[in-house]
Amino acid sequence: MKNIEVIDTILYRSENNESIADLSREYGIPTSTIYRKLKKIKDENNDDNDQSLRAKLYDSERRIAKLENDNSIYKEVIVLLDLDNKKTYEIMDTLYDKYQNKHALCRVFNVARSDYYHHLKTRDRKSKIEIEDEQLKIRIHKIFHDSEQRYGKRKIRAELEKEGITISEKRISRLMQELRLYTTQKMKREIRSQNKSRLFPNKLEKRFTWDKANMAWVSDTTHIKVGEHTCYLCVIIDLFSRKVISHHLSPFHDMNLIMQTFNKAFDERGKPSNLIFHSDRGSQYTATLFRQHLYRCGVIQSFSNKATPSDNGVMESFFSYLKLEKLNRYEFKKIHELGEIIEKYIIFYNHERIHQYLNYQTPVSVDKAA
To answer: Which of 17, 152, 234, 281 yields a CA-CA distance of 20 to 30 A from 199?
Structure first.
């Protein structure tokens, strides 16, 4: 057996706890030779271990440097995004549910621990408010669209109160903005200086509030495009309840339009006495035949001052609502199509549309209670 093989055998047997002295005698090899060989093998193994350890340490240092660099970039990105607290907390909440490490999140997002701890304690309460907002949004959306986009925050609040829901107008406004619900805004008309006339006196004098029905009516006409032609609508409203008590649609803007509308209201309301009938100074209202007809009916005629539409503000408002909330959404080709739309709107206006002036009641409900 060669010396190298003998040494390897001796080393192998010594690793199995056999005596070096016994192996030295058995193979005739000095013990010093065996110990030198063992020391050499041990030194070589230590060198290998040191090199492996140094390599692992180098790799760790590189990974740490890379992570520190990445972390610096993440922090710079977060600063550049300029997130508000709410959005930052939303992102942190998502990561917290995954990693469960509040301290690390606060370091990365540069958020004070106390602020984030407070957020974690209160986020369940905020969730309840958000859930309540979502439920309110459903009701607000329905009320808004049931009114065909006419109701604003005040009327929506009144409708919710009828359902036993107490809510501030400010909160309704916020929820409507989140839902992107916007009512059509009216343009304010210029109020010009008054020019009074003895021939056409203003008996109403802007007294738009009355204690009883059939004490004061207001009337006006408006023109509406139908195809290539124009139609004319005459309406009469009782100032007590703001109810539309008569209306008539005609292709002609003449005294007969006014006469038919008035006679229908006068008959259906039981021919009231001491009634004030107010209108503008249109030629149909100032016509001699119509004025004589009112005189024979015992009706007191009243006129707006010249160039002062605010004297008949209730009628101005009604036609404004009619056009903004309904007519402007359509293009009419036939007069009967226009008539159907107007009829539906007036039914809605009288029976369903609540009025701030009426303490958020409908004209019909106030009229019946009279």
So the answer is: 234
- The string of pLDDT tens digits covering residues 75-92 is 666 666 767 777 888 888
- Mean pLDDT of all residues in 72-77: 70
User: How far apart, in Å, are the Cα atoms of 244 and each of 269, 314, 321, 343?
Assistant: 12, 11, 13, 11
Helix (H, G, I), strand (E, B) or coil at 33: helix
Q: pLDDT of 286-301, one tens digit each? A: 999 999 999 999 999 9
- Confirm if 225 and 253 have CB atoms less than 8 A apart: no
**What is d(CA 117, CA 113) in angstroms, rounded to the nearest whole number?**
6
Q: pTM score, two decimals? A: 0.56
Phi, psi dihedral angles at 326 (to 5 degrees): -140, -65
Query: What's 216-369's CATH class?
Result: alpha beta
How many CA atoms within 13 Å lie on the side-chain side of 359? 3
Name beta bridge partners: 247: 235
